[in-house]
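Appendix B. One record, verbatim.
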Amino acid sequence: MSKKKGSSMNLWSIGVPLLLLAILVWLAYTMKGGAAVREGFTKSGALFVSVAPSMAIGLLMAGFVALLVPQGAVARSFGENSGPRGLLLASVAGILTPGGPFTHFPLLAAFRSQGAAIGPLSAYITAWSLLGAHRILLWEGPLLGWRFVFVRVGVSFFCAPLVGWMAQALDVAVGRIPMASSSP
């Protein structure tokens, strides 16, 4: 399956999950019978219905971000030549932007299509995962205590730019790693 420019799907992003799904369906059928397969599809449908609104919002946001944010601005701020500034900016953005994976990953795919490099994207998603301000303020501090937050954030703070720098260095060292999302 060849990947044309602008396409976000390739053999790995569709073929491998489909193969894994086929294996799971086959295992459910051989181990538990046809009723289990029907139950699996029913549970999957219910899960899809529960996450579909978030997925739709995230994909719509990504489309409008790609439309409204100038490609040059993304490339300058988060591109391969953005250097340490791009890593720090991406890290701060990851800390400050609330939301779940259904909104962030489509947005990151939009930024990737607009010229963002692997390093800043890696810094962003690492900061969002480790240091999301909304999670710290709403959950971690009130439930685990602010001393815990101070210590954990203190040791985690430099992880995002470091991961971004390492991801960028690895990308350069091994050449262009094919990605599921489109490259600029």
